[in-house]
Amino acid sequence: MKFTLQWLKEHLDTSACLDDIVERLTMIGLEVDKVHDRSRDLKDFVVGKVLETQNHPDADRLHICQVDIGTEKVEVVCGAPNVRKGMLGVFAPSGSYIPGTGILLKPTKIRGVLSNGMLLSEREVNISDDHDGIIELVENFAPGTSAAEAMGLSESVIEIEITPNRGDCLGVRGVARDLAASGIGILKQLDTTPVKGKFRSPIRVNLDLKKSYENACPFFVGRFIREVKNIESPNWLKDKLIAVGLRPISSLVDITNLMTLDLNRPLHVFDAANLKGDLQVRISKSGEKFLALDGKEYELDSSMTVIADDNGPKALGGIIGGADSGCNNDSKDVFIESAYFNPIRTARTGRKLNILSDARYRFERTVDPKFLVHGMEIATRLILEICGGKPSELVFAGEEPKWERKIKLRLHRIENFGGIKLKASIVKEILSALGFDFKEIKENKESLLQVHVPSWRPDIVGEACLVEEVIRIYGYDKIPAVSMESVNNLPSPALNLDQRRCFLARRRLAGRGLTEVVTYSFICNKHASLFGGGLESLKLINPISSDLDYLRPSLLPNLITAVGRNFDRGSDVVSIFEIGPRFTGDKPEDQDIVVAGVRFDQSGGRHWSGVHQPVDVFDVKADALDILGGAGVSVEKVEAIAEAPSWYHPGHSGLLRLGPKQVIAHFGEIHPGVLQEFGVKGIVYGFEVFLDSLPVKKDKKSKARPHIELSQYQAVKRDFAFVVDEDVTAEQALRAVRGADKKLITDVSLFDVFRGGELDVGKKSLAVTVVFQPKDKTLTDAEIDSLAEKIVVNVKKITGGLLRG
Q1: DSSP letters of 38-57?
Q2: Whole-prediction pTM value?
Q3: Is the pLDDT of residue 714 over 90?
Q4: Cβ(666)–Cβ(644) under 8 Å?
């Protein structure tokens, strides 16, 4: 939201300086983003008076001008068609910087004639795109006067950040109201005197909305004005729009823009000559076409609010007008629309069609539903004043939506919630200044205020909202600082399971030597396709850059890119990770949280202490298993399978799963073809852990760690060799051994794999060491033999393996 100090003072009677107002705005919650000094870019420019002009001897369209700039007379070569003797323009001397073109001016010979400076157009001073001629100053300024002062650009522009709940401050008057309530001035009265209509409008309005769509546009106010002259706007109006970055177009359009910025009342003006029949506010038909004022044609669906005539849609309600019914310089009869459009429906339509407009920005944050008629009367007076014409009586359709709310405020709640005790008189004064009405009532013998919320504050929904309003206007800086007497009553950290898992994953990976990074959730289509993505449904409508136009299907692409950047800058060891979302579709359930990391080591590992151990696939497997252990997953139950997605190197990668279908992680060497596409040389290992796929660990009754009991009896080790089919994994065999007796068997490890020799084709031998640990007595030979037999039987039952003889 932008405005100048002078514009603000049209609504606020104050003597406060710019610095005081900027400070107060921030203190009451309207954060000042910046204050732009427009005169800074124009500091070298002055008013120049053209004393003489003559045609250039070697160019038909050029003129040689003698220009008085106050301190001297200079010769300038000018090609503007409107340059003439006696006119006042904006002069830029040699050595000055031209903001609109970005050039540094210097004396230049143009067709043999030396030009010492330049007469500027509006584009060259960066106030509009007009460069058909030079600026012509209407008022009589002395040569040498500051150009910024002469053009009304000497004032600074205040830009504030508006939170989504403060739609009322998207108009200058709303900002002035808050400042007045804070005691920095007095809010001026707004003239809403009705304009008497001279005839009945020939255009009527019908709300053609089914019951389920009644809230799309509950209230519409219109007015017909005959014989207007859509002339160029007066300077005061153009100056206001230019100051906030808008280009003046014509008086009718400029007036609607002024109403939007000044009073937060978006309006639209139709050229009545291009309307057929009455206007209907209805829901669009699927496949209906609409040509908007931005020159684009949109295809509508069956959920959008349109204003239509007998020929079809003429405007998208609350968003943008149509090209074939907009006003131009030849418009004579016009119809003005002042309506209330549903915020949610407006936002959905704008997002679907990707249309950004000042009207949409305000309607989706809600506008004052009670200001439709007043806004129409103010706009009518401006049109009659600038464009002339004869107004009709007002046209009404529907009724004002119900916005009234009553909220009870207990004064002691201000101290409870805000930490400061205020007198009732101060609370009443603040609420009254903000536009709240109230009356004192008693409830259960307690005195309280029944507050009536004004129509422009739909964000006030409860008692806490009223406390916030009082405190922010009174001043957060006036809340006394108090020491904390005790920390015993502080609540425990409110972290859910997902947040705890992310926190533990960060701690564990940091402990393993990885550094956390944060990257964009967007990648290019080429990289997305390499990792199973690139769906058209995941393409961004409005990407921040052309190479970041798809949502990422994996976190690895950006991490691999980061590895390449670091290596190019001399880092030959890179170990990084990221925790964030990946996107496999456009539905909410298609987004999940992933922990991903990569390891890259091209250092060669020269060190006095010994031979360097390079990174391998087991390092990233260990990373993934460590995360799973920290997340409460029993690592003994995790099965490693030599399968992985196509972006991993086959044979040098795998996946981790719980059961036959629940994949919880990928790990391995990144496929060399993928690295080639990223321009990364060397070997990169990566892992992905899918936190949302992990089982939810049930909380135990006791939070204490289990007691460790160390047996006093001798452990027994036995070696077994089983002949199994080639497709049986070592993990399956180890599980079968463990399952023979979960109490006595405390450890199982693989120490040899053998193929060939006397073994049949398609067979292999797996040799394992098994540890038996008794707890209550020493095992006898018979008990050991019985346990060994159970192991052999269980392995044969689960894997089909036989004891190697």
Answers
A1: GGGTTTT-EEEEEEEEEE-T
A2: 0.67
A3: no
A4: yes
